[in-house]
Every structure is written in C-alpha cells, then in structure tokens.
What we know:
By secondary structure, the protein is an all-alpha fold. The chain contains 6 helices and no strands.
Amino acid sequence: MGQTKTIMNKNIWIRFYFILFHSLIISSLAYGEINEVSEIDSLYKIINSKKGTDKISTQLDIALKILVKHNEEALRMTNSAKLAAKASGNRNLEMRSYYTLGKIYTESSKNEISLAYLDTALAISGAINDNWNKGEILYQIGVN
C-alpha cells in the first residue's frame, strides 16, 4: 500500500509539472504574437499622426527598419507609400519607394523583382539629379 501511494504521488507531481510547463510555453507564445501585433499597431499610429509627404517619408523609413522581421508588412507599407508618392508628384519619394521595394525583395530572395525596382529607382534618381541616392541604389544593385 505504501508503494502504491508513493507512485501515485509521483504521478500527481509529474502531471502538475507537465501542466505548468505547457501553460508557460503557451502563454509565452501567445505573448510573442500579441507583442508583434502591438508593435505594428504602434508603428501605424506613428504613421497616421503625420500628413502629406511627411507621412510618406515616415512610411518608407519604418518599412526599411522592419523589412527583416516583418517583410510582408513592410511590403504593404511601401506599396501604399509608392501610390501616395506618385499621386503627390514627389519624384524623390517615388524613387525612395522603388528603392525600398528593391531592398524588401532582396531580403526575400526575389532578386529579379528586386533589380527591376532598383533599376526604376536608379532611373528616377538620374532624372532628378540625386547623386547621393544614386550611389546607394548602385551599391544595393551591386550586393544584390
């Protein structure tokens, strides 16, 4: 009888630790997912607090910062900025949009698409005589 009681106590403790361990794992995974969502939400709050070309520029800056961790979100953000830049007629922001798209596609190993966007950015930088960004674009093409 004493041995059976000891085995039952061990089983209870094993179950207890098993449940505790799984609870910790599940809660940490859920927190990670929630944390990523709130991170993106806070970035959109920053973007939405801006207007006009300042908003477009902020979108592009943020997209460059998040393109490794949140590639799809950076892509959505940059495409939105590209449309707004074209609508505003701001060639500099349009060029930055194409450059950012090139970097995003480089990160996701889609080199042909990346080069197409970088070539477009290069053409725009030449047309507006922006040698600084032209150098950045040429560098990106070289490492692509």
